[in-house]
Write a structure and sequence with these properties.
By secondary structure, this protein is of the alpha+beta class. The chain has 5 helices and 6 strands; from the N terminus they run ββααβββαβαα. It has a single domain, classed as Gcn5-related N-acetyltransferase (GNAT) (Aminopeptidase, 3-Layer(aba) Sandwich). β1 and β2 form a beta hairpin. α1 packs across α2. The termini are far apart. This is GNAT family N-acetyltransferase.
Length: 182
């Protein structure tokens, strides 16, 4: 499978792409850190290489290539496999990344379209994805392509603050006793 748009090719990644794509994922994770992600990029290099290898093995890893076979970005995706019966078959877009020098050239759109096409061929009726709340550029990109918010994740830091149970007992210590023991 190859999609050609001028000099851009979108194709399935090969095993020889994995090290480069792991480096690209590290760059993505560093950008996400600035937006509030808790993932530690370099500490997860081996793990993400394994995850990307699994996506590559299952034909769920696309690479955007420009002339001279340089990678400009990638997308990883799969069909959701869960324990619940759903009323739709969900494709999951795990990552979509375009290197900064290649942004605003249609590469992200080309990757997204190929992901959607491939997932549709595999039976998906809907695509789900996550974007950092602070990543307005990504959220705007997905909205432009017809994606709507359907679920919201919320977070609250517990560092440096008393939890409700600590405030209730007046203690900052771990209370392992039940209320009946008091």
């Amino acid at each position: 499978m190859t999609t050609t748009d001028t000099d851009l090719r979108i194709e399935f990644a090969t095993e020889t792409d994995l090290e480069t794509l792991a480096d690209d994922w590290i760059a993505l994770a560093r950008e996400q850190e600035e937006l509030g992600s808790h993932i530690v990029p370099d500490a997860n290099r081996e793990a993400i290489r394994d995850v990307l290898a699994a996506h590559q093995f299952n034909d769920g890893l696309l690479v955007a290539r420009i002339p001279a076979d340089e990678t400009a970005g990638f997308a990883s995706f799969s069909i959701e496999r869960g324990m619940f019966t759903l009323d739709s078959t969900r494709g999951v877009l795990s990552n979509l990344y375009v290197k900064p020098p290649y942004r605003d050239r249609g590469i992200g759109t080309a990757l997204l379209k190929e992901v959607e096409h491939t997932l549709t061929e595999r039976g998906a009726t809907v695509v789900i994805l996550e974007a950092m709340a602070a990543n307005e550029a990504a959220r705007r990109f997905y909205r432009r392509h017809g994606y709507d918010t359907y679920r919201v994740a919320m977070e609250r830091s517990l560092e440096g603050e008393e939890s409700d149970s600590q405030a209730e007992t007046g203690s900052g210590k771990n209370d392992t006793h039940s209320k009946e023991d008091r």
